[in-house]
Amino acid sequence: MKQNGAPLPSPLGALLVRDLKIGRRIGGAASMGVLFFLCLVAITPFAVGPDLALLARIGPAILWIAALLATLLGLDRLFQADAEDGSLDLFLMSDTPLELIVLVKCLAHWLLTGLPLVIASPFFGLMLGLDARALEGVAASLLVGTPALTLIGAIGAALTVSLRRGGLLLAILILPLAIPILIFGVAAASGAMAFLTPFLVLCGLTLAALALTPFAAALALRNGAE
Amino acid sequence: MQIEASALSVERGGRIIFADLGFRLEAGEALRVNGPNGAGKSTLLKAIAGLLPLAAGKIEIAPASEVRRAELCHYVGHADALKPNLTAFENLAFLAALLVTSAARPGVAAVEAALERLGLSAVADLPAAYLSAGQKRRAGLARLVAVDRPIWLLDEPLTALDAPAQAVILEIMAAHITAGGVIVVATHTDLPIGTADLALGRAAHR
Amino acid sequence: MRTMPNYANPADFLRLVRVAVPGTTAITAILFGIGLYLALLDSPPDYQQGETVRIMYLHVPSAWMAMFIYVVMSSAAFGTLVWRHPLADAVQKSAAPLGTSFTFLCLVTGSLWGKPEWGTWWVWDARLTSVFVLFLIYLGIVALWQVIEDPGKAARLVAIFTLVGAVNIPIIKFSVDWWNTLHQSASVFRMGGPTIAMSMLLPLIFMTFSFTFLFVTLHLLAIRNEILRRRVRRLSMLAASAGEAEVPVIFAEPAE
Predict the structure, then answer these.
(1) In which element (H, E) is residue A40 found?
(2) Which of C148, C149, C150 to probe by mutation at the B interface, max B CB count within 10 Å?
(3) Chain C nearest CA to B13, separation (Å)
(4) Where exactly are the structural domains of chain A?
(5) Is residue A85 over pLDDT 80?
(6) Which residue of C has its CA nearest to B9?
């Protein structure tokens, strides 16, 4: 089980493994996100009617909104648990830059919640009557877009880290900022026009979020934790 | 190793917690901070650890090094930084991996040794959630042993511990001082190890 | 020892407010007098929109203020983060509700204009939608101010969010424009441009200046209130601790 004499992993590797283990053992993160996603998809036909043609038309939008909400609503504990139990203090006292710690935590969170959504989306797409082309589009755009949602959401999670009921406020702060991702994600998924243009813009947005988030979130954590 | 704080003042939420506070510790010295609740004992430790900004004053460490002050310090606050669904070993192994600054990473053996020193070998593979309050406290303190840092900032380290466990912690603290380390400990109780005293509270800042 | 006033000092700033506000109030009143006369009485009705066009004289300046105040907040946010200056905090905090109000005014006037022109209260037109998203961001900023207890911490966290928003707003604008052309909304909502008649441009300019000066006046007063509010807060804390011991000298306020 444990090999004596083995060196400890690098700080970031250890953090990734730790967060994945916590997520898996709570069983919360991964399965809850997908379950919530499924519930949102399931209630839509009750709201708009069982007309498959209509559902197929708005299907990509439904899947994207569901993914957006499933991602954001799970994010409020991203840094809060660490702030409450004192781990955040220790992050600040290690020589690993907080920016990288933020990135690794986002990666772990995405692997636990974003990736399962991407994998589940084609199956849920079938229930909404999407054709093969749209299924591919939804999966591909979610694969590229959900990391951006996690990253932007992480800024909100860092800003609300010291608030008891930060979840709703996080969504209020972050949803307006997520509009561009939603626009290009749904455009790439729905096939209303050529796939490539919105898809590439979506990739660009994700890269921009990747560049901006670590600094903004780390700054917020440093200021919010004191 | 020498740490000198002069004219410290810390402000939280617009309230000045303490002002114009100073102390000086040489290698092998310990400082006991006491004072009534709300006098700023925990705040002082966090400020030394670099977790709170100083409103005024400075903290100097000699010999000067390029390493940030925070990376020279161990801070053990009220929270134990334990994840309830990781085992005691996994918790400590993560913290050790995170906190080690030198290129020479301690092995898994160092983590096991630290757990053994605090009498936690038997529960090392149990999730932290199952540990008693005293065991959790010891697991939180185990990083003092697992990772070598010269300055220890301990906030009420003996709470929730029974007499034998307190003796172990005091032994560990004494060993750290003998080895040339520095300890600042916030506590109400008298410690049998030789400490200088710093009384916080309103009468303290002149 | 100071030879010239340092307006970053709250006490000096309060003095500035006392001197400046009567002046800016007078300028605001005069500009509004001229602007409203030009906008409501002097300028001709539009040959297509008729009298409805007069809503524009409120709508366009509000839209300008919505953006201008965001720029003011972003600059102050920068000051908060870089210099940790309490006055920058107060500038940020007091601008947020004003920005929210002007943005709301812009949306309401847009909606009122839309009813006769488009036959509906709301159209997901690119510009109106962008302003709407800006309004949501403003609401988020105001909400964030309200929930964080410690004023210094609140200022820094809001500053980070404001700057993140500032980076995002152009992206949102671009996205919404792109989305709008994608869905080919029929609405055409064009104001300005070189074709605008002089008789309409002049009231527009006056109204824009009126709004700007109105904001400056209200903002100065709101900053003053914020400085005083902080002072009250500090004195209350002092009173709370005075029960226990003598008051440290540090709390003493400079005499005005």
Answers:
(1) helix A28-48
(2) C150
(3) 5
(4) 11-225
(5) yes
(6) C250
